[in-house]
Amino acid sequence: MCSVEPSVAIRTQISLPMDGCDGPATLITFTGFARQQEHFVLRFGDIHADPAPLVRIHSECITGDLFRSQRCDCGAQLEQAKAMVAAEGGLIVYLRQEGRGIGLYSKIDAYRLQDQGLDTFAANEYLSLPRDGRDFTCAAQMLQALGVRRLRLITNNPEKQRQLADAGLDVVGIVPTGTFQTAYNQRYLDAKAKLARHWLDLEPACRNEEVVAVH
Predict the structure, then answer these.
(1) How far out from the chain centre does Cα 173 lie?
(2) Which residues of this UniProt protein bind Zn(2+) (predicted)?
(3) Best CA proximity match to 170, nearest among 145, 152, 156, 158
(4) Residue 160 annotated as part of some ligand binding site
(5) What is the predicted pLDDT for the residue at 207?
(6) What is the band of 22 on the pLDDT scale with cuts at 50, 70, 90?
(7) What is the pLDDT of residue 30?
(8) Nearest by Cα to 129 from 105, 104, 101
(9) Are 67 and 76 in contact (CB under 8 A)?
(10) Which candidate, 87, 115, 136, 196, has a CA 20 to 30 Å from the CA of 19?
């Protein structure tokens, strides 16, 4: 969970040249998080020019972001968002909330249960863990520390929009990410669409896939 105290402040800024980008990004770290958490921001271009900057709030997914696992759509969403903000200017807010906040090892345990038939949310609950333990309050605090009050949010997740609005930010537009289906993530995406109401454009074969009910 993220700190709810209004104490988040910029700690360090460094230039970070990256593949696929015309110029370097700026990597920004912060102080003031609970339990010495290490969330960070990648800033591309001018974030204060009109219209409001593009912002992607991305929760860590080591299997998807680093190893490009096809069990989820996280790595593909991150790469798409990076291309978008690098081209137009904006921010990637990277939150160290692996596995929807349950941690890497618990996520792997949940994967094992998914292989046995549970959907992504029911697997977490079977482990006595929250369906989605993420808190985007810290993302709002990081944006506020950077002077961002208005933004266009890159997301398919209505919960991110709600939490940012509750924290006092003005989400003036939603820019959807792609729907990245693979042979291995169709039930995962279908569960997100049906049970968490993510805005996903799923192919009929995916929509008809059976989802194990959450108990």
Answers:
(1) 17
(2) 61, 72, 74
(3) 152
(4) yes
(5) 43
(6) confident
(7) 97
(8) 101
(9) no
(10) 136
Q: Model confidence at 126, in pLDDT bands (50, 70, 90)? A: very high
Ligand-binding annotation for 128, yes or no, is no
> How far, rounded to the nearest angstrom, does the alpha carbon of residue 78 sit from its chain's CA centroid?
8
Would you tell me which CATH number, out of the four given (3.10.580.10, 3.30.565.10, 3.40.50.10990, 3.30.420.10), belongs to the domain 9-97+134-207? 3.40.50.10990
pLDDT at 189 over 50: yes
Sheet of 54-59: strand order equals 9-16, 25-31, 40-44, 90-95, 54-59, 150-154, 170-175
Furthest C-alpha separation in the chain: 49
Closest CA to 187 of 206, 171, 159: 206
**60 annotated to a ligand binding site:** yes
- Give the tokens for residue 37: 């958490």
Evaluate whether 76 touches 114 at the Cβ level (below 8 Å). Answer: no
Residues 2-19 have pLDDT tens digits of: 544 558 999 999 999 988
Q: Residue 119 is encoded by which pair of tokens?
A: 């959907």
155 annotated as ligand-binding:
yes
* Tokens 């939603």, located at residue: 174
Active site residues: 132, 134
